């Protein structure tokens, strides 16, 4: 681990970012260039003290998960991310396999969607990044590990909890949609191996999955209009818009509602409900 190099790199990248680059107001009084340490720390889930120790050449070796979070918070390119991993004494994630690295351009768009629920998902249905309103709308999906990171897996393996967000009448179509998306991922050079592992595991867990999988459906498009059942606000009718990366390995999913509708009012209440829940 190159502590001096890591410290200098983290500080330089933090100071190179403007608050507006990550969806924050510029503010009238900023005594230091770029982002404050507490702003970067909040975006990664680490403490400000931990980041300070890293920048002061006295921190412990960061985990790979923490380096991934720092890469996103600092809007690093793939080359910069790999450099960060090497400075921290880790081998960079192989680029030939699928990557959780979210392109800086996509992160910039996400950061500007302060008043709209939005999230970045992989082609395996994994939530890579969620803004605060998306977490308030569909739940915080950052804590899942292994196969459970994939909504495709959770939908069939854990139906009691995963399907609570959807009306019962929508379950059948959602099952077909997710199974078809998983089958499409089998042909992905980046995600095919992981998609196959999910499918093989589900065939041992879910008779419903086995039946749908046997139909060999592909191209079942997700519904652009959905009703989500929020635990505090009740049913919310949302329009789902997808912005795909060039290779379709990731998508920016944005939830909106018809302006002036009851569902639009509920989306505006998400932040208040989330704050009350945290309190």
TrEMBL record:
It holds the Pfam family HTH_31. Residues 34-81 form the HTH cro/C1-type domain. SMART domains: HTH_XRE. InterPro entries: Cro/C1-type_HTH, Lambda_DNA-bd_dom_sf, MLTR_LBD. One of its GO terms (molecular function) is DNA binding. This is Transcriptional regulator. The lineage of its organism: Bacteria, Bacillati, Actinomycetota, Actinomycetes, Micrococcales.
